[in-house]
Structure formats: structure tokens, C-alpha cells
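Hello,

Our lab assistant flagged a job as stuck in the queue for most of the afternoon. It eventually completed. Since we weren't sure the result was trustworthy after the delay, we are filing this so someone can double-check. Below is the sequence as submitted and the structure that was eventually returned. Let us know if re-running is recommended.
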Amino acid sequence: MPEPVMIYDTTLRDGSQSEGVSFSSEDKLEILKKLDEFGVDFVEGGWPGSNPRDDEFFELAGKTKLGHAKLTAFGSTGRHGTPAEDDPNLRNLASCPAEWCCIFGKTWDFHVTDALCVPLEDNLTMIRDSIRFLRKSGKRVLFDAEHFFDGYRSNREYALKSLCAAVEGGAEWLVLCDTNGGSMTGDITPAVEDVLLTFGVPVGIHCHNDSDLAVANSLAAVESGAMMVQGTINGIGERCGNANLCSVMANLNLKMGYELSAADLSRLTKVSEFIAETANLTSSPGMPYVGEKAFAHKGGIHVSAVARNPRTYEHVKPELVGNRRRVLISDMAGRASISEKLKDFGIDVDSEESRIIVGEIKKLEAEGYQFEGADASFELLARRLKGESECPFRVTGFRVFIDNAGDRISSEASVKVMDPDGNEEHTAANGDGPVNALDNSLRKALSKLFPVTGRVRLTDYKVRVLDEKSATAASVRVLIRSTDGKQSWTTIGVSANVIEASLDALVDSMEYAIYKNNGKEDTE
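-- returned structure --
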């Protein structure tokens, strides 16, 4: 049986060079643990000695017991003219707690002469001596051949000499890097095959995504014999990012039949979401395999076919990568879409009911509603049309005041609500803005009638202008994301008045919370 492909994650080092990303040492430690649990083979933690944060991380990581992953430290070859044993960078690598070190060196003659500004032979000596020093210090070494594919095209003989120097120094892996991300897939195969025929050392691939080919080039390298892929979760990284390991791993295993040594792909989507959350980045919903849209179906014909057999419009089962199928409701939806979506809510409809619901959806979407992102409002609408549910309260009146007191603008809202028995509550509350004040006032009133609403909080608020040509008279669509601490849901409101649209979405949010709690008293 062939050896499994090794997965080398550099999210903590290369990924942290992405614009807007800054991991604390605690963040890095949590990510290390998550990647270890997931089954990544190598985790590159950072550059010891480059900053206090990485030093603190390696100190913490050195005390952390890992189940599978090999903690790896990153650095460069030593400085020109400085003996390896006296080089501060190499000494930091030698003394760090990581068993493995990955150092990069120049393999493109242009970079050696114009960026490093040293003689070509001296660069080879630096590569050889740096790796040899780390090996004598007890480290295992991977060599990142920086700009290898550019160097190979420019001067094949020198690029291979650079790899030869790394092997002579004791490198256990030769990792070929497309550092500028400009190589075409056709450039990868012959270079990888040439290296494998020349050296008896396993080869890895490290691609950047500047030509949008990082995943394709990584897969091509594996097909050519490379047995390690370096990349990041979600493809984050400098400039256009690195090879997205989520796509790389799924393609290697599910499409190409390669074994991964330990990665549990059924947890892939959760790992992707965790990394995005920790990096304070919004996950790209259109990411293959792990994105929210990866298995979302909108067109009625598609949904009808998927309901019969998911293979009709899904290239893999979403569960294999820990994702889920989503049916989107819009004016493109047919009865099959409605029926399939309602199954998620445990609602059965007959043909007449589905016809009525489809008709109402199409009418409301013509007015500006968009239910594909507002599942809670859609479920409430379907239950109302089926006669299963009515709103347990009515807003009988509301007012919003905005007061300009000197250099500060404050908002106050008052709301009247009534339950089915005629009990009315009239309350007022302040807020940072008119919608916040309205939200506070509505929850304050409802919590006396329905205590469960006291735990509801807004987590997101979005406004979309529907007809920009109408300027300030345009209708707006408001989407509100709410949570009770246990689950989250999204509701929608549409009106030419942003306050009214916001109130409609807020009312749906509170109704949904009450419905899910079956109107029972909140005992927590």
C-alpha cells in the first residue's frame, strides 16, 4: 500500500501573514490543539526569536502533549559570513522545543544575486551549513526551496544544486515552493519528477495562490510523486493566500484516492469554521466542500432532482466533510423545494398547501423579501399558512424618539404589546440607536408576558436598500440574527420605513423564540 500523503499546516505562520489576521499566543495554542485533534501531520507554529508572541507560543506549546501532529519551527538559512553555530536565528531554532525545523533558502539564482546579494556558491554553503548545524543540534529538518519553480525555469542546474546542498546538510524533506504563486500547473509536473529522479529524498509542495492555482498545482505535484502538501486552512496567507488545505485534503482523499495519515474529513467543516472564527475572519460561503453554499440548492428543478437522488447535483456527500445540504427558498422555488425545506422543520404539506405556500413566497419576494437567508421567518410563514401557528402577541403601538443633547444623540422607544387574553404591556427603553432602543423596549415588554424572550439577544443586523434609484424613499430589507444562548436564527422585514422593517424582523424573532419554547415559562 502506498504511503499516505503528509499534511503540513502553516496557518499559524504563513496564514498569520494574511492582511487583517493577528493570532495571540493563546489563539495559536488553541489552533495547534484543534489541528492535532483533526489529524494534521505537521503544524508550523512560527519563527522562534522573531517576536515575543511566537516565543511565548513555543514555550506554551513545548509543555503541550500532542497526539499526532509534529510541532515545527520555521526560520531561514544563516547569514552570509556568519558561522552557523554563531547565527542568532539558527541558535533560536536549535534551542526551541520543536523536534522539527523547516528552514527556507534561495534556489533562484536571480534572488541570490539581486535580493540576497551574495555569490551563488556562498548561498549553497549557507544552505548546507545551516541544515548541518540544526541536525547536529538534534533537530529534524525540512528544507523549503524558496522560489524553486521560478529558479528551475531560469537556471535548472543551479536550482538543483541548491537542493543538493540541502540533502548534503541532512534535510529529510525537500519542499518545492511556488513562492510568488505564478506557476502554471504544466510547470509543476516536470520539475517535481526531475527532483524525484535526481534525489532519494521525499518531496513536498508549497504553493501560493496568486494565479488561483494553488490547489490545482498542489494536486499536480502529488500526482507527480510529492508526498507532502503545505498549506493553510481556508487558504489564508500573504497576498492572495496559500493552498487551501480544506480543498486539498478533500480532493486528495475523496476524488483521487490518496490516503491521509490521520485527518478526519468528517470534521473538516468544523475546523474551517473554528480557524475563521479564531482569525476573526468571515468565512467565505462559497468555499468548496466547507462553505455554507457548497451544498445549497435554490432552483426548483435542482431541488426536485436532489430529493430523488443527491448525486444528481452533488459531487460528494456533504456529511463526508462535515457539511450539510441546504435548500434555499426563493421565487425560483417550486413545490419540491418547499416540501424538501419544510422537512427540515418537521412540517408535512400536501400538494394544495405547498401550492399556497409557493404562491405566497413568490408574492412576498416580489415585494423584496428574501427567505433563503431567513429560515425562521420562512418557518413561521409556513406554519401560519397551514393554520398551525399564530403570533402569540400583537404590537398595538410604538414610538421612537431621537434626542440631540449637545454632542450626543440618544434614542428612546416605547412599545405596546398585547397577548391573546387581552393583557397589555406598555414599556419604554433607551438604546444606542433607534433600532437598538426598539429592540430593548420590545423585549422588556414581552419578557413580562413571555419570559423566554428575556434571553434573546441580537447578534447581527443588516440593512439592504432594494431600489437605489429611489434614494431615501427606497424600500429596505432588514435581516436580524438572534440567539437565546442555545441556538441562533434569522428573521426578515421589508418596508419603505427602516424602523418598520426592523420591527417586523424583531417581532418574527421574538415569535420564533416563543414558538420554539412552546410558550412555556423560562425556568433557567
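-- support follow-up --
The delay was a queue issue, not a problem with the job. The result is valid. The mean pLDDT is 89. The radius of gyration is 29 Å.
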